[in-house]
Each structure stands twice: as C-alpha cells, then as structure tokens.
Amino acid sequence: MEVTDQRPQRPTQGRRRLSSTDRSRGAKPRLLLMGLRRSGKSSISNVVFHKMPPSETLFLESTTRIQKDFIHSFMDFQVWDFPGQLEYLETPTIDLETIFGRHGALVWVIDAQDDYLDSVARLNRTILTVQQYYPNINIEVFIHKVDGLSEEYRHDTFQDIVQRITDELNDAGYENAPVYYYLTSIYDYSVFEAFSKVIQKLIPELSTLENLITILTNNCGFEKTYLFDVLSKIYIASDTRPVDMPCYEMCSDYIDVIVDISELYSWDHPDRKPKGEQLREAESHVVLHDQTMIHLMEMNK
Ligand SMILES: Nc1nc2c(ncn2[C@@H]2O[C@H](COP(=O)(O)OP(=O)(O)OP(=O)(O)O)[C@@H](O)[C@H]2O)c(=O)[nH]1
C-alpha cells in the first residue's frame, strides 16, 4: 500500500518511550495542533485558552511559524499550533524528535465543511510515523466546523472520515489503531468538551480524582459534579455518570458569571467600605427557575 512507502526516514534518535524519569522530572505534556491550512487550529487554541470570542477568529492571520503556548493551570502543559502549510514529515530540516518526543497528544483538525480527502491522507501518514516511533502520543481527531452542517450530514461526514482512516490504517497493517474522534465547533461547547477529554487522558491522577468526585456526588445527592479549570473551562474530571451537555454548559456559564462579578468587586475604590472577613476559596450557588441548584466551590491546587 502506498501509504507505507511514504513514511519518512526513521528519526535519528529512534523509537522513544516515556521513561519513568521523564514523568518524575515532571515533563510537561504537549498538545500538538495540526491539520491543513484554515482548518481552524488557531481559532480553537484562541477560543479555548485565550477566551477569544468565536466571531473574532474570522480576523485571525494564517500561522506562519509554530506558535507555542505555555499553559499554567491544574496541570502545566504546552499547546503548539502548527502552520497548516508545513509538511513536517517531508521537511528534512524538521527534527521529529523535537516535536513528538514528549508525552502528549496530537490533535488533528479536519475542516468538515471543506474537501477533507487530502487532510485524511496527511493524517494517515502522520499516524503511521507517530505510532511507530512515538507511541506515547495520543491521536485525537477533531472533525471541526460542524456548526455549518445538518444533523444528518454531520453524522455521515463523521462515519465517512472514521471509515477512511480506519481502512487506510488497516491496509497499512495498523489494525485497531487507538484513534479518537470528536465533532467540534468553536460556536458551541463541543470544542471545550473535546479538549476536556483530550487533556484528561494526560492526567495521571484522573482515576483517583474521578473516584473522589463520585464519592462526593453520591454522598451529597448531587446530580452531576464537574471539576473545572476556571481559566479554560475545560473539565478535568467528573463523576462516572454520563456527561450531560446542558448541565456542563450551565456550569460553564455560571463560572463566567462568577468570574465577572468577582472582577467587578475586586477593584479597590476609595468610597468602598472595607471588606469583612473573606473566605479563602470562592463558594456560591444559584437556584434556577426549575428549582435546579448549581453550587460552585473553588478548590485550591
Ligand atoms: N464555521 C466555523 N468556522 C470556524 C470554526 N473554527 C474556525 N473557523 C474559521 O476558520 C477560519 C480559519 O481559522 P484559523 O484558526 O485561522 O485556521 P488555521 O488552521 O489556524 O489556519 P493556518 O494558520 O493557515 O494553518 C477562520 O475564518 C475561522 O473563523 C468553526 O468551528 N466553525
């Protein structure tokens, strides 16, 4: 099969696994945003990590060099946004070890509103290289810009892309490839939900966090509990009940409200009365019209 012939030369440093020393040194996981030009990589990065309103992404310039973002949060990690026109597998000056030689995830963005065959072919070449030399990289595919598609067309596009990738990888001898797919758009919460799933896989303590949250949920009679990163509104963990999107969206909006109110009242003003005793961690709740209560509790690190 042609795909195998197109593999680049084996990287000089050879196959690399994440050693226990890497983990103990606390090497920061890396999220690599790749895909064709205009597929939406920079938009995703800006909306999720820099609170850019989705409509402003219309004015983003094309990325010409790798943009590296260092995110300091519940877990420090890096986001690398690649220029779409860069054929990094075919460019001899690019050292693949520098890109993939770190624990992390490759997030491949496919524009579902455009012709995606070229993108799928490039993704397959990339997967074949990455799985061979850098098995510590999770492969995550964002079938993106689905806001413009009808429900039925969305479903068909999803099936078609998954089928093409699976078939080509099978033909190349890579069966049951651990590739994960998400339907995403920056115009709703789907991209936050997808990033949550991608990042959760990189958190070594995930199962402990999930167990603790499930105990809390059961003991307190909560319907659903999420542990959010306030800045990005990615959820780091939740209890084991299925994710309920409307509930996730409400919690996410509530965080925005609380952050805005906190900012309003955090300014020092000469006429303002001195503050009384303050709680160290924020805590707040609201009762909605249907009597549902959202309760927010800030956790320290
Ligand atoms: N409808 C829709 N448009 C989107 C979405 N995400 C991004 N876009 C638009 O897609 C266009 C390209 O987005 P970019 O983020 O610049 O794409 P890129 O992949 O970073 O492009 P390069 O830097 O050239 O590689 C912009 O006009 C965005 O507004 C989405 O979810 N839905």
UniProtKB/TrEMBL annotation:
Superkingdom field: Eukaryota
Coiled-coil intervals: none
Catalysis: reaction(s): GTP + H2O = GDP + phosphate + H(+)
Keyword tRNA-binding in record: no
InterPro entries per UniProt: Gtr1_RagA, P-loop_NTPase, RagC/D
Residue ranges, annotated region (Disordered): 1-25
Keyword DNA repair: no
Pfam families named among the record's database cross-references: Gtr1_RagA
BP term (GO), one: positive regulation of TORC1 signaling
UniProt entry keywords in alphabetical sequence: GTP-binding, Hydrolase, Membrane, Nucleotide-binding
Main location: membrane
Compartments, record wording: Endomembrane system
Family: Belongs to the GTR/RAG GTP-binding protein family.
Assembly description: Component of the GSE complex.
Its biological purpose: GTPase involved in activation of the TORC1 signaling pathway, which promotes growth and represses autophagy in nutrient-rich conditions.
Name this protein carries in UniProt: GTP-binding protein
